[in-house]
Input
Amino acid sequence: MASTLEIRDLHAGVEGKEILKGVNLTLHQGEIHALMGPNGSGKSTLAYVIMGHPQYEVYSGDILLDGESILDMSPDERARAGIFLAFQYPVAIPGVTVAHFLRQAVSAVRGYTAQKNTNGPVGSNLIPMREFRQELNEKMRMLGIDPSFARRYLNDGFSGGEKKRLEILQLAMLRPKFAILDETDSGLDIDAVRAVAEGVKQLVGPDLGVLIITHYQRILNYIEPHYVHVFYDGRIVKSGGPELAHELEAQGYEWIRREFGEPVAHA
Ligand code: ADP
Ligand code: MG
Output
């Protein structure tokens, strides 16, 4: 049966300041949802709260994976349960390659670290190298990523497009039930936008639900979502089909402000 991720009347924020003001959203595996809204409306906060970022507090409401609350779960438990938010790019560490990083991530999410054996041979808590390599090569081929990419050092002069390719490769390797892709607005060149869109297109299927968070409609020229939600002042104010994204592109966000008023400041 398809999994569901349900956000139910979620209120959350930072240090008592409410940023999310009653978010309701249900995703099913196999669906692509786009969440669009002006800057500062709380889109990234929603992504962080779903992932369990410790900086954010949940005041009320719930987030349920297949009917079970995930609010008490740590970020890595949520990742193991099948929720994906691209890891922040770790600081550049000399000698850490893309392949090395991905092997660690895959091992952690698939629970290899749970059987940690401190007396065992080095690497006993990791997915076996051969198995990992085989899968990595297969996914890179599928996504059209050059094999040399795996040998690059993380964060070492990555272009916007390369960072996004790494994000999509992580997604392909981690095989989550739900992926939340926060397309931050700044510095996303067209190469990056295309990398994300093409990657998501390759990966969507009955086993993956995607929430694409975006300010611009641009990425939706490459990938058509099943549902579009307009996010404003901490909640979803309108939902519809792909036509809603085109409406937003044509009209911008001004009409939302007219219809729903200026954001309410909370103490
Ligand atoms: P968006 O992604 O839609 O641009 P954000 O979720 O980044 O919006 O931010 C929404 C609001 O919450 C902004 O006013 C922002 O300043 C505030 N905010 C977000 N994260 C924090 C934080 N960690 N501490 C304080 N304020 C925050
Ligand atoms: Mg944001």
Notes: The domain at 4-86+176-260 is CATH 3.40.50.300 (Rossmann fold).
